[in-house]
Amino acid sequence: MDLTGKLLVAMPGMGDPRFSHAVIYLCAHSEDGAMGLIVNRPAPDLRLSDVLDQLVSEPAEGQSELGVHIGGPVETGRGFVLHSDEYRSAMQTLEVADGFAMTATLDILEAIAAGLGPERALLMLGYAGWGPGQLEAEIAQNGWLTCDAGMALVFDQPDAKKWGAALNSIGIDPLGLSSSAGRA
């Protein structure tokens, strides 16, 4: 089962508070493990302009108000940009699936600062990672649901509504979920 390009949606009983109500876009999934980016966790009081001010000399107008997200608990000082696939970095862009791409090099931030970046983008600090078989075990233990990743859900939906929208996309009403398991 290859879940690359899918969304993981945290179940209410998720034991790790870092992933409570998380929606994670899976950039890579194989027998060697998985890597994803949380798409609904904004970094408090951190804007793209704060990052660009440190890295490039003159950001383009309008780019400074874009928010920064916490992509996950691993390597939180490292930046990743999840974006639409019409943009290609001169350095390295990973084409993920269905119109999505990821770039983790400085040149995409320079392109965004110059107004030449991708049409849609989310800047992340850190990522979520799983070792071989770990994600599959968490899914089997009802830690995660999976669903298709749509551009509108990932890039256009307000962060606070992405979890509910992801659940609705697979026919689940978030109000009907419980964190406790039952027996029939």
Task: Write structural notes for this entry.
- This protein has 184 residues and is of the alpha+beta class.
- The chain has a single domain (6-176), classed as VC0467-like (3-Layer(aba) Sandwich), CATH 3.40.1740.
- It is 22% helix and 35% strand.
- The chain contains five helices and ten strands.
- The protein has helices spanning 48-55, 106-113, 134-140, 151-156, 159-169; strands at 6-10, 23-30, 33-38, 42-47, 67-70, 74-84, 93-97, 100-103, 121-130, 144-148.
- Strands 1, 2, 3, 4, 5, 6, 7, 8, 9 and 10 form a ten-stranded mixed β-sheet that branches.
- The protein starts with 5 loop residues before the first strand and ends in a 15-residue tail after the last helix.
- 36% of the residues are buried.
- The mean pLDDT is 87.
Instruction: Please count the helical segments.
Output: 5
Question: How would you describe the oligomerization state of the chains in this entry?
Answer: single chain
Rg from alpha-carbon coordinates: 17 Å
CATH class (first level) name = Alpha Beta
Low-pLDDT parts are none
Major sheet? 10 strands, mixed
Order of helices and strands: EEEEHEEEEHEHEHH
Give the integer mean of the pLDDT values: 87
Give the CA-based shape.
globular
What count of domains describes the coordinates? 1
Q: What is the helix content?
A: 10-25%
Please give the number of β-strands.
Answer: 10
Family: Belongs to the UPF0301 (AlgH) family.
Organism: Sulfitobacter aestuarii
InterPro entries: AlgH-like
Protein name: UPF0301 protein ACFSUD_11630
